[in-house]
Design a protein that fits this description.
- There is one protein chain.
- With about 160 residues, the chain is mainly α.
- The chain has seven helices and two strands.
- β1 and β2 form a beta hairpin.
Length: about 160
């Protein structure tokens, strides 16, 4: 592994470890003023980003997890009044998951809290560096998601 790639992987690992710590998630939800598990926040923010109701399978695909995992969390979010099931306009037999007003408020609060952290961390970065970071992180996320999806598909077809 060349030095540049090694540094990239190590930096990513450190960042992912920092952001995935349970205490970090607790601080995020505390700053947002809501008590939710990490998968619950991910589902709410995914629905907020989609800006429309989504089927369970589409949420699972977006979060790169299995549908039963999403189904369990959606049921809990539904009991809390943060999401609701609505008929799929393309297939009246199917359901989509939609944010309620309370769910939208919670998702926005979590997004705002995370944005405030990044804003504080990047406050002293010049705008061109911030723009370059945004561009490169978006490219990395898209390329990694595509690569992992391809790997998952090839593993599934090999079974």
């Amino acid at each position: 592994m060349d030095e540049s790639l090694h540094r990239t992987v190590e930096s990513y690992r450190r960042l992912a470890t920092s952001l995935n710590r349970a205490k970090t998630h607790e601080r995020l939800t505390q700053a947002a003023g809501i008590r939710l598990d990490r998968p619950d926040v991910q589902i709410l923010v995914d629905l907020l980003d989609a800006d429309e109701p989504r089927r369970i399978g589409k949420i699972a695909e977006s979060l790169q997890v299995e549908s039963p995992h999403v189904t369990r969390h959606v049921a809990a979010l539904e009991r809390r009044g943060l999401v609701e099931r609505v008929r799929d306009p393309d297939d009246g037999r199917a359901w989509r998951i939609a944010l309620t007003d309370e769910g939208s408020t919670a998702a926005l609060a979590c997004r705002r809290a995370a944005a405030q952290w990044f804003e504080a961390v990047l406050a002293d970065w010049p705008e061109p560096e911030r723009a370059e970071l945004a561009r490169l992180l978006e490219k990395l996320a898209d390329d990694m998601s595509g690569y992992l999806k391809t790997q998952a598909e090839s593993t599934s077809s090999a079974r």
